[in-house]
Amino acid sequence: MPRQGLGKESILQAAIALIEEKGIAQFSMGELAKRLNVKPASLYNHVDSLHDLLEQIGLAAISRLTEAENQAIQGKQKDEALFSLAEAYRFFAREHAQLYRLILGLSKLDSQVLEKGAGDIVQPILHVLSTYGLREHQQYHWQRVLRGVMVGFAVHEHAGGFSRFPVDENESYRVAIQCIAEGLHRAGKEAE
Amino acid sequence: MPRQGLGKESILQAAIALIEEKGIAQFSMGELAKRLNVKPASLYNHVDSLHDLLEQIGLAAISRLTEAENQAIQGKQKDEALFSLAEAYRFFAREHAQLYRLILGLSKLDSQVLEKGAGDIVQPILHVLSTYGLREHQQYHWQRVLRGVMVGFAVHEHAGGFSRFPVDENESYRVAIQCIAEGLHRAGKEAE
DNA sequence: GCGAAAAACTAATAGTATTAGTTTTGTATT
DNA sequence: AATACAAAACTAATACTATTAGTTTTTCGC
Questions:
Q1: Are B172 and A104 in contact (CB < 8 Å)?
Q2: Which terminus of chain A faces fewer neighbouring Cβ atoms within 10 Å, N or C?
Q3: Alpha-carbon distance B18 to B157, whole Å?
Q4: Which strand C bases fall within 7 angstroms of a protein CB?
Q5: pLDDT digits (tens, 9 = 90+) for A152-172
Q6: Does the domain at residues A70-191 carry the CATH identifier 2.60.120.580?
Q7: Which nucleotide minimizes the distance between its C1' and the CA of A48?
Q8: Is B37 (CB) below 7 Å from strand D?
Q9: Residues with Cβ within 8 Å of residue A138, at least 6 apart in sequence
Q10: Is residue B56 pLDDT above 90, yes or no?
Q11: Min Cα–Cα distance to chain A from B159, Å
Q12: Considering only A80-94, B62-76, B149-163, which range has the smallest mean pLDDT?
């Protein structure tokens, strides 16, 4: 086995750290190379392209997000699980704003690799919804509703577009999730 | 008055047309200059920077969006207005995908100019909610809830992340808005 | 027709990702 | 321990970005 260099994994870790520190806007192959004490061109021995690298980082970020979600709902059911999931999602989007941005931006980079990520994201949501006893197609609809609300709030908080009114954002989020909870109860009853 | 050239307005219009045709990813000062039969540097006689230009385009896009919304809710009340507004929002996000992308991305470009845009966006939403007879702070909360859902769905449809389940996306959206409608009725009764 | 003001230009800088071709270097084998 | 190989890292180049400074061209008002 010939010489052992950077390695895909160490590059990925360095890239994630760099993005979380300096922000996605400052990220570049040059900056990454600088941090790894290497010339930019050398990175191409381990990575196909920036596009490819961002995709991998995005997948890693999705993995962290879904892990947090799964942990949040462990052993919980219905409303308790629902609020816990929603809280975990929002917390991640806030605490890892740069990684979350990257996840959002990921969509435009096509790729089949993301198919896996998309599946992972949906899983904890479906798990929570499964405790409400909905019919299958209802479960799919409500999965979109819940995901829509969580994404919508996250996007807006990133944009700072929620700060213009004198009411607490946490409370707004609670209202939203409570609204969904009641919708889920109704749908659950109809399915009986 | 000396020689009359491109002018801010014609540049803006050309930029919007170019973005809608070729997509925001292909947009650059060079491409814009090419379309205007001018060298890139010449654009700087009329525009401060790409950043500045994108901001102006974003404001124009917001203006078109809110115009569509206001038209959609004209003469309507409560649920009828609510569904009509939601439909108009989604329609715009779909039909002007590139411009909508730009609006979403606008947030990261700070600027005070956007304050106006943010106000415009909120206005039709508040107008619809005002027909439900909520208390003021409730109205602010529900404004965020509704906006969150609309943004969330739009973002997801852009990402193509909704297509993985065999249920109609239009119906999912209807479920979401209906959920909010019922929440609004409850909140309206509590306020009586 | 003339002067001035602004538009459009040329040329340059600094940044981006990326590729081809060369050199270095670590490791595994003899 | 010396060597050969393979991959890592390098240098140098290309082709894009946005942007600025300085120069030339144009055209409007007089």
A1: no
A2: N
A3: 23
A4: 3-12, 15-21, 24-28
A5: 999 988 877 666 788 999 999
A6: no
A7: C18
A8: no
A9: A187, A191
A10: yes
A11: 5
A12: B149-163
- Dist. CA B34–CA B38, nearest whole Å: 6
* Contact of B120 with B127, CB cutoff 8 Å: no
- For A129-142, the pLDDT digits (tens) are 999 999 999 999 99
Torsion over CA: B188, B174, B160, B114 (sign): negative
pLDDT of residue B100: 95
- B100-124 confidence digits (pLDDT tens): 999 988 865 566 667 777 788 899 9
Dihedral sign of CA atoms A163, A165, A171, A173 in order: negative
Angle, alpha carbons A53-A54-A58 (nearest 5°): 120
A·B CB contacts under 8 A: 136
Residue A5 Cβ < 7 Å to strand D: yes
Return the number of other C-beta atoms located less than 10 Å from residue A159's C-beta.
18
Q: Which of B175, B170, B173, B66 is closest to B128 using CA atoms?
A: B66
Q: What is the Cα–Cα distance from B139 to B142, expressed in whole angstroms?
A: 5
Query: Do B145 and A175 meet the contact criterion of CB atoms below 8 Å apart?
Result: yes
What is the tens place of the pLDDT at every residue in B118-164? 788 899 999 999 999 999 999 999 999 999 999 999 998 887 766 67
Chain segment A25-69, per-residue pLDDT in tens: 999 999 999 999 999 999 999 999 999 999 999 999 999 999 999
Q: Which tokens is A71 given?
A: 């942990």
% of chain A residues with pLDDT over 90: 78
Contact A107 B161 (CB under 8 A): yes
pLDDT higher at A118 or B110:
A118
Q: How far is B27 from chain A (nearest CA, A)?
A: 15
Give the separation between CA B160 and CA B150, rounded to whole angstroms: 15
Question: Is there contact between A8 and strand D, defined as CB under 7 Å from any strand atom?
Answer: no
Q: Contacts for B133-138 with beta carbons within 8 Å, 24 or more apart? A: B133/B188, B133/B191, B133/B192, B134/B184, B134/B187, B134/B188, B134/B191, B135/B191, B137/A166, B137/A167, B138/B187, B138/B191
C-alpha to C-alpha distance for B145 and A153, rounded to whole angstroms:
8
Cβ A169–B144 below 8 Å, yes or no?
A: yes
